[in-house]
Amino acid sequence: MKTLQASRSITELMETAQEAVVRAGRLLHEHWREFLEAGVGFKGPVDLVTEGDRRSEATILEVIRSRYPDDAILTEERGAVGRESEYRWLVDPLDGTTNYAHGLPVFAVSVAVERQGQLLAGSVYEPATGRLYVAGRGEGARRDGRVLRVSGTRELDRSLLATGFAYNLRETDETNLDHFDHFSRRAQGIRRLGAAALDLCWVAEGWFDGFWEYRLHPWDVAAGVLLVQEAGGRVTDFFGAPLDLCRPTLDVVASNGQIHGAMLRVLELGHTGMHRASSSTP
Ligand code: IPD
Ligand code: CA
Ligand code: CA
């Protein structure tokens, strides 16, 4: 049974998300070498996990539980923890683990909170640069206090896009390589950074005009989705439908809104043989 809880202000939720990502992010940065020396594990053929992922996650849980001990939390490394509750936290303790494990300073910590399917607050921290992103429903999106606004680019062939490739690339026909091919011929450029949370923050910044990726998880995108929406952008699945954060995997398209239709049309080119129902694996 779900526990009924007193309603909370968006500001207090934003503060908790920020405190969690900053504390965990500093730990990841300060102990980077030591965490890698502890060894790197494999969750799949190319899916890594480090001591950094685990320690960062423990730090975030500590912050959330110290304020909201009864909340549900979904984390990447532990799955669903805590009891069912009105509020649910979505935690990616280290987005960009492959980069982190190779010493590449492109990684982030992402924490968001939702209530009955509606994202209320989210924060992403990029430890290597110290950039701190935060958004609250109806409160806008900010980086280090500066209000964020998506780009004004109207055409796909003037757009800089970002994408990523899911870890099961070797085991599926939905590789994203066909979409990559189609977008490469239509956009100004495409980047693959290896940290979906940052890809979304950078759509909110207006640095990227759009982003798409198959089979992301709710913890990868929750904070970034709110950042894009609050910065005036649009986020859907590959068919233009709203994202359902209760699904285990999500196919995500995020954009400045203006090129969204054009992005969906390009994604359709690669949908041959794909059923609508497979857009987000149940
Ligand atoms: C991964 C990154 C990457 C994306 C993968 C994600 P992780 O998250 O966001 O950019 O392409 O699909 O799983 O494993 O580094 O937290
Ligand atoms: Ca991730
Ligand atoms: Ca992760």
TrEMBL record:
Any transmembrane segments, and where? none
The GO terms describing molecular function are: hydrolase activity
Which Gene3D superfamilies does the annotation name? 3.40.190.80, Fructose-1,6-Bisphosphatase, subunit A, domain 1 (3.30.540.10)
Q: Locate the coiled-coil region(s) and give their ranges.
A: none
Per its UniProt record, what SUPFAM superfamilies does this chain match?
Answer: Carbohydrate phosphatase (SSF56655)
UniProt KW Magnesium keyword? yes
- Record-linked CDD domains: IMPase
What is the protein's given name? Inositol-1-monophosphatase
Q: What species is given as this protein's source?
A: Geochorda subterranea
The taxonomy runs:
Bacteria, Bacillati, Bacillota, Limnochordia, Limnochordales
